[in-house]
Amino acid sequence: MEIAVIGNSDAVIGFSLAGIKKAYEATSEEELVNKINEVMADPNVGILVLHQSDYNRLPKRLQSTLSNSVRPTVIAIGTEQSTEMREKIKRAIGVDLWK
Amino acid sequence: MAVIRGTKPTRAVLIALRRRIKVAQTGHELLKMKRDGLMIEFFEVLNRAKTIRQELVNEYIRAEQRLSLAKAADGTIAIKSVAFALQKEPAVDLQSRNIMGVVVPKITAEAVHKKMYERGYGIIGTSAAIDEAADAYESLVDKIITAAEVETSLMKLVDDIEKTKRRVNALEFKVIPDIKDTIRFIGFALEEMDRDNIVRLKKLKAKAQKRAKAEEAEKAAKAAAEAAASAT
To answer: What's the CATH number where A17 sits?
Structure first.
């Protein structure tokens, strides 16, 4: 299985340097959603890498679909922390365990 | 008292409810155990996730810096052309693992990080900046692969802990007390019916006795009259 990346041009160049062929550039929100749907439907993709800021821009519904998906597994990277995980842990356990 | 709506106070329903409460109690015990088990698993994964997230962020910052340097030194087109020359694509193997009914991904991959001469482009034709950027992104991808597994597992576990907790609480504070109340209600209703019946039977018995007595008296009176007639 392969890794797919959707992000800005820098991310695309960087990850293609690491040998990833399925690196797509998407800037506008519409492009982003379309590309994500396309990649999610691709049976050969094992991991989908998104940028955290792009991920935060997505509609909530899509976000939850992405975070619940196992195949492919979606991961958002970036310097900013995602609040989603923190909130979830707080809600489920009752205590903020994330740091 | 929260009696389940629409239950008829009959013995058959009572027996069925007793059976149900037994099932609910075993289910409650099992779910409690599942919740505790998930919690233990969750804490293990949480510690791993925290460190991996931190490493991932560091790796990401490093990779972006190296890429910017490479872009400044060689230009975007040179980097792109190098990227086209790469031969090996990182491949991952995605399997799923089952932790107490929660499906979590298990990702195995061979290391993406490669030696410089294994990458497939000429060493002489490119600058060191590109090499470093490629190097940084390769280790970033390595980190992403581990992080993807751990974070998704964490997410799934958290979701399921919440679900299980909800179920445990629903059973403990709603379903089981309701059934208990209903059983008590049916018990009272049956007792009440019993008492009704006893009173009714007593009344009937009294009536029957009265009638028997009256008949006897009549008989006695008749006998006495006959005796009197034969005497004359």
So the answer is: 3.40.50.10580
Domain, as residue range, for A34: 2-93
Is residue A99 in some structural domain?
Answer: no
For residue B186, pLDDT beyond 90: yes
CB-based contact B112 A18, cutoff 8 Å:
yes
ipTM: 0.82
Interface with chain B: mutation pick from A73, A85, A89, highest number of B CBs within 10 Å: A73
For B33, B41, B217, the CA distances from B29, given in Å and listed in that order, are 6, 19, 70
Contact of B67 with chain A, judged by CB distance below 8 Å, is answered with yes
Between chains, do A1 and B92 touch, taking CB under 8 Å as contact?
yes
- Of B21, B24, B39, B46, the C-alpha closest to B165 is B39
Percent of chain B with pLDDT over 90: 38
Band (A29; pLDDT cuts 50, 70, 90): confident
Q: What are phi and psi of B30, to 5 degrees?
A: -60, -45
- Mean residue pLDDT of chain B comes to 86
- Please tell me whether the overall predicted TM-score, pTM, comes out greater than 0.90 for this model: no
Question: Are A66 and A74 contacting, i.e. CB atoms less than 8 angstroms apart?
Answer: yes
Q: Give the residue on B whose Cα is nearest the Cα of A50.
A: B144
pLDDT at B215 exceeding the cut of 90: yes
Instruction: Give B20 or A77, the one with higher predicted confidence.
Output: B20
Query: Is A78 close to B60, i.e. CB distance below 8 A?
Result: yes
- Tokens representing A61? 């519904």
Beta-carbon separation of B79 and A17 below 8 A: yes
Single-letter code of the amino acid located at B22: K
Residue A42 placed within a domain = yes
Tally of domains in chain A: 1
- Asked if pLDDT for residue B205 goes beyond 90, the answer is yes
